[in-house]
Structure formats: structure tokens, C-alpha cells
Amino acid sequence: MFQNHIHNLRGLAILGIVGAHSIHAFDWSARPTWYRVFDTICNQSSILFFFIAGYLFQHLSAKFGYGRYLQRKLTTVIVPYLILSLPALIVSTGWSGPPMIPQDSVWAGFYDMPAWQQVLAFYATGKHLAPFWFVPTIALFYVAAPLLLALDRNRLVYWLLPAFMAYSAWAGRDFLFGPFGKGAYLFSIYLLGMFFSRYKAETLLWADRLRWPLIVAAGTLFWLNVREAHPHHGILYGLKLCLCPISVHYLKKWDPFLKKRFDHLAHVSFGLFFVHGYFISGGRLLYEHFTEQPLPEGTVPRYLAFAALILALSLGTLAAARRVLGARSRLLVGC
Length: 335
Description:
Number of helices: 18
Mean pLDDT: 91
Largest sheet: none
Shape: globular
């Protein structure tokens, strides 16, 4: 059965991704509280994506074929990633001297390596464009699919979910280097998604009965993160963790009303993920070039308008690609 409430959650999650990256187009030094509000709402929306990925992986596992599975992921995720990385690699890699736009997230000595090694390192880590870390990380789960399927059928691994969650809350996304550290951090969420799919009826009942304690916990964590009373990555992880069952409960409950309202966003979510970072980075560069000014001051209307513009430009680009390329657009933009 098609899981429309999970499909709608994917559409909402991609809005969070676009919103999270749009925040950094502005200088929020005059309004730090508003920055923390938007950052708390949108940052680490990728947790929802990993929950969805784990859910759908288990949901479709009855017809699992490893070769067919990898081929589908290759054509809809990996190949678009390789192609759409090229503009960022051209400006971030030093082929004949210093790069046009060096990345400050790389490690010391990175730009002392030959250019071809820089390219491989960028592809392996996704550090050439802010959203791209997601692909090398999720690729680890694609490769590990047979092991994950065996764990699901054995079911004993689900008893370890609290331990995996405790690790994620303690370690954070950047505790270890590169996609392996991020994969270890997000494994608990992916496994939670598998658990919710394996025990659909039970988890829906559980989410219904515990919705108010979860809402109170999420509200408390939201307040703590905005106030920075106890600044720690575990707070944001805990908030997004609470939002997973809350979202499943309410999206399932409201499914007769919501129906297909987020259908298009969900269908093109990977495409939006791939292209929106270019519009954000390009917008910042154009602003600084033509105004010769630093980042504009962040305000609520300005941020919301900018995020809406990025979303509109990204959707328009994807629509044009799909119109021109037809079914082959999946190889270029992932949708």
C-alpha cells in the first residue's frame, strides 16, 4: 500500500532543507534570536529524510533485489550527484593555481594535494557544496542494504535502538570524519524509520498515545535551543527525533484532508536537494559582486522571501529539465 503520509513528510522535509541553507545567505548579528528560531526549525531536516529512507526501505523490502536496488539508486541519486557536482568542483578545485572559490570546510593541507585527488576527496565527502554531504552518507546505507535487511528480519537490532539514539545524541553529526561519522550519527534515525515500517500499526498507536508528551518534549527542546540555555547538538537531535513520530501521527490523521497537497514537492525532492544550493551560493556571490557589500542583514520577511524565491527558481529549473529531457531528466537532476 502506498504510504501517502510518508510521501507528504518527504515534501515537508525538503522545505526544511531549503529553509536551513537559505538562513546563511544573511547576516543575523542584529537579530540572533530570529536566527536561532529559524535554525532550530529547519536545521538537520535531513534527519527526517533518513527516517523516511529507512521507512521506505523496509516497506519495500519484500520485493528487494540488491542488483536492481543499486541500479535504481545509481540512476536516480549517484549519477545526478556526479553530474551536478561538476560546476562546484570547477570553482572549488585548483586545477591551474588557487581555486576560484576555496572551500573553508576542508581539512588543513587539502589544497596541497593534486587537483585530481581534490576532486575525489570532494566526491567522497560532499564538501564542495553545502547540501552534498548527504549523498556520500546515504550511499553507505545503499551499499549496506543486505545487512540492514538481515537485521530487520532478525528484529533483535530494534532492541538496541535506545543505545544507538544515545550515541547519536552524544556524538553529533561531525564527531567522526566524513560520511562514516555522519552515517554513524544517522543510523539510529534510519533504523527508527525501519522500525516504524516493520511495526506500522503498533507505532501509529504508540505515536497517538504519546503525542502530548512528545509535543511537550519537542517544545522544551525547541525553547532550549533557541535560548541556547544548554547549547549541545543533542538538543537538536532530540527535537528532530521527537518530530518523527509526531509527524507520522498527524500526517496519517490528516491524510484525508492533505491528500496530494505535497505530492509534487515529494516527487521532485531529490531534484530540489541537488539544485537549490547553487541558487543560494550564486545569489550570495552576485549580491556581493554587484553591491560590493557583505551579506545583507537578516530579517524575517527578507529570509522568507529569499527562501520562497530559491524554492521557485529550483522548481522552475526542474520543470524545464523534465520538459526538455523527459524521462532522462532522472539521470541529470534526480527526478
